[in-house]
UniProtKB/TrEMBL annotation:
Protein name: Dihydrodipicolinate synthase family protein
Family to which this protein belongs: Belongs to the DapA family.
This protein's record includes keyword Cell division: no
Family matches, as InterPro entries: Aldolase_TIM, DapA-like
Entry keyword set: Lyase
SUPFAM superfamilies, per database record: Aldolase
């Protein structure tokens, strides 16, 4: 059973963990461990989960696996509003199909990257989000200009909000100055911290949620950090942020999946290997993540 929590008017608020997907040694998905992990995250202070995001290695999943991940997450969460499904795809029609599947499974919202098969212009971006919004679920835009080569600037986000296509943005650019411009251009558009290592800065700038990676390994400590940050309790947030930052910054690195899964393994959670073409961490990277994780655990951050 999952712990009861007050119903949120906007289910994309709060801590939503971009779930890592436990894999067995043969690289098959361990759905039983995944269900247990989703329940554990919610019982440990997270408000919800984001399956089939980049951390969930959705690009390497078959259609059947990707669909089963969503159904597993919704069932394990016990409340579809707790689940924001990643619906990124190369084509708008395919993304809409995944959004419709998420709605049928009972999810409360979806997370959508811009078109990323090419460097899309503003007209294409607007059409893409409008198409997926037709599925009927609230759409959270995901701005990751590094990997997609498409930048959802504050002005473009304001236009997408005015179009009625999005309700919030997961902001991963790392430029915290954008928070203030977004608030000026689209005051009702909800800002969600999209990178672990700028959480405190974006929370102080008005973020109302955090789509997070490291709670997969340290959910209680991350929940404490988030709540202190959004409350402006710097006496609590700043030293905790400093203690966790050697790990949080891995969320913005190319090897973020491997790093978070290693931390999960060390914390006694089901992480496991990654699917190709991703490779294991180098010996140097492994040592850095291992040392930072063991230090955090030894200091009681779990």
């Amino acid at each position: 059973m999952t712990s009861a929590a007050p119903q949120r008017i906007r289910p994309w608020h709060g801590i939503l963990v971009a779930t890592a997907l436990p894999l067995r040694s043969d690289l098959s998905v361990d759905f039983t461990s995944y269900a247990q992990h989703v329940r554990w995250l919610i019982d440990s202070g997270s408000d919800g989960v984001v399956p089939n995001g980049s951390l969930g290695e959705y690009q390497t999943l078959s259609d059947e696996e990707r669909s089963r991940v969503v159904h597993t997450a919704v069932e394990a969460a016990g409340d579809g509003d707790r689940v924001m499904v990643g619906v990124a795809a190369y084509g708008s029609t395919e993304s809409r199909r995944w959004a419709e599947q998420a709605a049928e499974a009972g999810a409360g919202s979806v997370l959508l990257l811009p078109p990323n098969a090419y460097r899309a212009d503003e007209r294409s971006v607007r059409a893409h989000y409008a198409e997926v919004a037709k599925a009927g679920l609230p759409v959270v835009a995901y701005n990751n200009p590094y990997d997609t080569k498409v930048d959802l600037t504050p002005a473009l986000l304001a236009q997408l909000y005015a179009d009625g296509s999005i309700v919030a943005v997961k902001e991963f650019s790392g430029d915290v100055r954008r928070a203030y411009e977004i608030a000026e251009l689209a005051p009702e558009l909800d800002l969600l911290a999209g990178a672990d290592d700028v959480l405190l800065e974006l929370a102080l700038a008005g973020a109302v949620g955090w789509i997070a990676g490291y709670p997969n390994a340290l959910p209680a400590a991350c929940a404490e950090l988030y709540h202190a940050a959004v409350a402006g309790d710097l006496a609590t947030a700043r030293p905790l942020y400093r203690a966790l930052h050697p790990l949080l910054r891995w969320d913005s690195k190319t090897e973020f999946i491997q790093a978070i899964k290693l931390s999960m393994d060390l914390a006694g959670r089901p992480g496991g290997p990654v699917r190709p073409p991703r490779q294991p961490l180098t010996a140097e990277q492994d040592a850095m993540v291992r040392a930072a994780t063991e230090k955090a655990l030894a200091e009681g951050h779990k």
